[in-house]
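call fold(seq) -> tokens
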Amino acid sequence: MQFYSRKWIKPEDLNPNGSLFGGKLLSWIDEEAAIFAMCQLGKEKHLVTKFMSEINFVSSAKQGDIIEMGVEVVSLGRSSITMRAEVRNKLNKATIISIDTMVFVSLGADGKPKPHGVTQMADSDL
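ret:
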């Protein structure tokens, strides 16, 4: 898995307990995965999040921590791309959250699934 983006945890990212707010982290992951999916599918720009599997919060992040987000392609469907994601602490590599399955679907102008036209990824992308 490649880790593409990093975030510095700031006061506005914290919950009342002083740790990273889970909703903020999920928003970052969803955006990171969507951007990654668009890049993998080339010209495809109209993707939506269809499904996220169980979200496993393993550890927390505190103000001042630097986290990194990683995603990788698991499989391709006719109109979908399935990935997994992990967020970890940049310094000690401790996993903060893992998501085994995230499915994004390509939509047509009518808002219905449409084929994205990619049939296989290069070996380095799978």
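Residues 2-112 form a domain with the Thiol Ester Dehydrase; Chain A fold (CATH 3.10.129.10).
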